Amino acid sequence: MTAAKKAPAKKAAATAERIVDDTPLECADAAALARWYERHHASHAGVWLRLAKKASGIASVDTAQALDLALCHGWIDGQRKSDSDTHFLQRYTPRTKRSTWSQINRAKALQLIEEGRMQPGGLVEVERAKADGRWEAAYEASRVATVPPDLRAALDANRKAAKFFAALDARNRFAVLFRTQSAKKPETRARRIAQFVEMLAKGEKIHP
Questions:
Q1: Which pick of 28, 94, 136, 155 has the fewest CB atoms within 10 Å?
Q2: d(CA 65, CA 59)
């Protein structure tokens, strides 16, 4: 496990609770990344993990292993960006109190618990999510997300909105579905649906 020589930005500072260090981290295998989490999961504000592309032939922890280890310690994956012909960068950070859960990661967490791999930090985040409703409200992944009945009914009642929604790209379609599903209160959900229908009827979308 070594720090990458090439770093898009280097910044190290101490916050009141966690250390901020944007120097990319390279791990040749899952065991090396597991050791990093054991030492730093409670002290660091996040990490840029430098992962080798499959075709590179370079020894590296892969994205599936990295996500499992993040979930084990109460962390989650985030932004991904390019780095070189052989590597890319993936951001991992501790979950926050408002961090949403996907149904896929919820299932992964249950599997990790069943396999006895889940660590105390990960169990804490699971219990927090169950206690405040985020666990039950886990959203569908973008590739399988479906239109809920209440949103479908609202779209069916407005032909212009329905037509524009059907023509949205994957990113904008998922944005509407995610923001609808993530509403915690029925009145908030209803208000969002009304706003989306009005927006779509005007030919407007969330992302450019």
A1: 136
A2: 13
Q: Is residue 127 part of a domain?
A: no
Q: Is 70 part of a structural domain of the chain?
A: yes
Q: Which of 37, 67, 38 is nearest to 51 (CA)?
A: 67
Taking the model in full, what pTM does it have? 0.71
Closest C-alpha among 77, 137, 65, 131 to residue 101: 137
* Torsion, CA 28, CA 29, CA 34, CA 40, rounded to 10: 20
Whether residue 8 is found in the same domain as residue 88:
yes
Does 206 reside within a domain?
no
Residues 13 and 85 in one domain: yes
Residue appearing with tokens 């779509």: 200
Quick: pLDDT tens for 172-194: 999 999 899 888 889 999 999 99
| Cβ contact 24:6 at 8 Å | yes
